[in-house]
Amino acid sequence: MRDFLISIKRTPFQSAASFLVLFFSLFLTFFLLFSLAFFEGILAYLETRPQIIAYFQPKTNENEIFKIRDELVSSGKVLSIKYTNQKEAFENYKKMNQDNPLLLEMVSADILPPSLEIYAKKPIFLPQIAEYLKKQPSVDEVQFQKDILDRLLTLTSILRKISLTFFIYLFLMTTTVLITITHFKIALKKEEIEILNLLGASHSYIRRPFLKEAFFMAIFASIFAFSIILAILFYFQPFLNSYLQGISSLSLNILNFNLLIWPINWSFLSITFLVTSLFGVLVSLFSTFLATKKYL
Description:
The protein is α+β, with helices and mostly antiparallel strands. The protein has two domains: 2-47 and 149-295, no CATH class; 52-144, Alpha-Beta Plaits (2-Layer Sandwich), CATH 3.30.70.3040. 70% of the residues lie in helices and 12% in strands. It contains eleven helices and six strands. The strands form two sheets. A four-stranded antiparallel sheet has the order 2-3-1-4. The chain starts with a helix and ends with a helix.
């Protein structure tokens, strides 16, 4: 740490440039990781919701509903089906409107429709199932969420490609700038390095101070970028709570482990910090190693 502080005092402008480049790169990395995690979490949440809901006419006989359910199951296109009768629908309605007694007085179980909540094995089967249900005379309404799911899938796929392209750009840009800055630092220490060479110092010994400085610079840039992201996240937390109203939690499945990302989870934040810090350290050390190798 002492050598790191001395190096900053000797080359303040080059050190500031290195810090700002690393900060900018890691800040954008944090932002992209958070964005990807939220979109993936929302996508995973929607995939766990009923993809098709068929509402039947209130006076439909249960046997007729069960017949339609059995035909869908036998088609091999359905993963699971949940049947909700009028009594269960009324209980769900009461839970949703328990704070509004006026709405509870206006509704009874007799006027609420029974329904089937259907999960398809593959998205390609959704239009076929929806079309089949619409042709049934006892079906009053079919809610089909394929459009929403498809849009989110497309948006998430685009974001993944943009993120990958941007990560490659950040890596190349950061590496190029850091190599250039390190060359300036080496030029300022040219006489000192020549003396060390004459005294028989090894290349690893000469390179070590530059690598230490690169390591600490990446760590401090990562901490600073993470602090800014946290401040922004907590500032916009009320807006996100309002935007995600009705969604109790968002999570990611990573290697069969569910990682909670919303509400704000410190495990997720810690993993994001470690991953981004590792990226910053590797880029910083790699750039410094290339710069010193070329000179030495």
